[in-house]
Amino acid sequence: CLCAPGWTGEFCQFVENACLIYPNNCSDGATCIDMSQLREQPLFQCLCPRDFTGEFCEVQIDNCGSNSCENGGTCIGHEDHFECICPIGFEGERCELDIDACLFNNISCAPGALCFYDEENQRSHCVCTLGWTGNTCLENINDCEINQCQHGATCEDGINKYSCYCVPGYEGPFCEVEINECSSSPCKNGATCLDLSGHFSCHCTAGFKGETCSVRISECQDRPCWNGGTCEEDIGGFKCNCRFGFSGQYCETEMNECDSAPCLNGAVCQNDVNSYDCFCPEGFEGLNCEINFDECTYGFCKSNSTCLDLVADYSCACPPGFTDKNCSTDIDECSSKPCKNGGHCHDLIGEFYCSC
């Protein structure tokens, strides 16, 4: 008998080498070891190369399956361990440590921004958080450029947002809602409410006054009747009951001392029993309003200015650096922008100086 590979004996009935009988059972790269006894069944064992296992070394060991690398690292599995090949900017057993790839290009991203290294172009760049821009994410985006504030509202820029500050009379996130100040019925006693921009106006019925028409008018409160006349309240008005010898709406008429026009400088003469009173115009005093009152005694002029008394008026001669009628307003010498080339102007009293 001419025996097949792996068999021997007169009739090829004995196993000589099981590995020759089954030459392809062990996977590529595995080493077959004959384990057969002469008169037994053919036996063999596969000695697996590194990173393979199984009866025939047909199973590749994948240590990366449950131990994947982080941050884009490439995993290489071995028989009893795995190895991570980290991209630039990371290190550690699993590439879990960020070693700041931006240091390769001397880029320092703002806090919160992410830095990425572009291997193809070999450069780093910053990915900004919302509301920031620029190469290093240090520039705040002006969200007011898309300003949706309405009706004259003021826009204030924030970080990835903006706020609308409404003028009186409007509300809402964009000041888009006009407030109806009459909706709360502020006007009392039958008054008519007129809604205005930012406020309201009440048209009072007769006999009432005040911002909301809540005050009943006492026509006699100011004692409008003269010469001892008695005031009697009336709806929306009053009536004077005059003493004997006087007449007129206010009991003001009498044959009196005012006929000789004793009051001077445009004063109003009021007759009294056996006397008269002069009601002086602004700027005059005295029994007959003959004295020009010195308004400078009130100290209207400020800032060490000089006061000049006039007729029913005064004038202030302001020192340098002040203006208006009372010299109380400091002139802003910086308003004309005198400082050049980016210098900062500091306003002083009567002068300025530039911080270059």
From TrEMBL:
Keywords noted in UniProt: Disulfide bond, EGF-like domain, Glycoprotein, Repeat, Signal
Alphabetical list of SMART domains matching this protein: EGF, EGF_CA
GO cellular component, one term: plasma membrane
GO biological process, one term: gliogenesis
EGF-like domain mapped to chain residues: 1-13, 15-58, 60-96, 98-138, 140-176, 178-214, 216-252, 254-290, 292-328, 330-356
InterPro entries in alphabetical order: EGF (IPR000742), EGF-like_Ca-bd_dom (IPR001881), EGF-like_CS (IPR013032), EGF-type_Asp/Asn_hydroxyl_site (IPR000152), EGF_Ca-bd_CS (IPR018097), Growth_fac_rcpt_cys_sf (IPR009030), NOTCH1_EGF-like (IPR049883), Notch_Cell-Fate_Det (IPR051022)
PANTHER family in the cross-refs: CRUMBS FAMILY MEMBER, PTHR24049:SF30
Protein name from the UniProt record: FBP1 protein
Gene (name only): Egf1
